[in-house]
Design brief:
The chain has 251 residues and is α/β, with parallel strands linked by helices. The protein has 9 helices and 6 strands. 50% of the residues lie in helices and 12% in strands.
Length: 251
């Protein structure tokens, strides 16, 4: 039986949703694989909605907003693009196909373009198969949700774009490549920490157990565990001298 991907589409009320409406009125043909959520602005789409949709059983997510310069809220579509690029970075870091997320622009008068984007996207993700292929993917998606809902990444989402255009509180202009390095390091660290948290929900583990289970270097596991201990999110217990300490979820 041929695989039919399920797609969740977030459509801007003013442009993309109107474009979808025009596609229906004009009877432009496109696959019935998509389910639609209308939002007032594409910038309103929370990054955590993407892994949540995949974990809920959708195989791909489309976010369609107004063209640049046409946003009713001035920069909502620009913010949406920046946030979706960040989500795609996290998907790559988690080794989840970044094609599971697609961002583009559709105006109210582009019904035919909307129909083509949906049809093309369905065919693009069809070869990928179901998003929830394994227990490992489910755990990675849960770690992505935890990361994107965490305070640190939400701070990064808000501040990095601003700092690319403005000076910091000390009147210094941080180089773009340096900001990108900070962003990449923060995303990687938060994802790995939350992968550890998800793994520990199954029960206490040693650092070596976590390294083997998550396929991460022991040095990275130890670095993340040190940070998680400082945050109070994990605890550890020692028994005999020759036994490695067990790490568990913090109280």
């Amino acid at each position: 039986m041929n695989f039919e991907p399920k797609v969740l589409s977030f459509l801007c009320n003013w442009c993309a949703y109107a474009g979808a409406d025009l596609a229906g009125i004009s009877r432009f043909q496109y696959p019935p694989n998509t389910r639609t959520i209308r939002v007032m602005c594409s910038g309103r789409v929370d990054p955590a909605f993407i892994p949540r949709a995949l974990l809920a059983g959708f195989d791909g997510v489309m976010v369609l907003g107004c063209h640049i310069g046409d946003c009713h809220y001035l920069q909502g579509n620009i913010q949406a693009k920046q946030k979706m690029e960040l989500v795609q970075k996290l998907l790559r870091e988690a080794e989840v196909e970044e094609e599971r997320l697609y961002f583009d622009y559709v105006s109210a008068g582009e019904g035919q373009r909307f129909a083509k984007l949906v049809a093309d996207y369905v065919e693009r993700i069809r070869p990928l198969g179901p998003a929830l292929k394994s227990k490992e993917i489910k755990e990675k998606l849960q770690a992505l949700i935890n990361s994107l809902e965490g305070e640190k990444i939400r701070w990064v989402i808000g501040k990095i774009p601003y700092l690319k255009e403005n000076e910091n509180v000390y009147g210094e202009r941080v180089a773009t490549h340096r900001l990108e390095e900070i962003l990449d390091r923060t995303l990687k660290d938060e994802l790995n920490k939350n992968r550890i948290i998800v793994s520990l929900t199954e029960g206490p583990k040693t650092a070596k157990d976590l390294s083997a289970a998550l396929n991460l270097p022991l040095s990275e596991i130890l670095s993340c565990l040190t940070a998680l201990l400082g945050e109070g999110r994990v605890a550890f217990e020692t028994s005999h001298e020759d036994v490695a300490p067990l790490f568990s979820l913090g109280v």
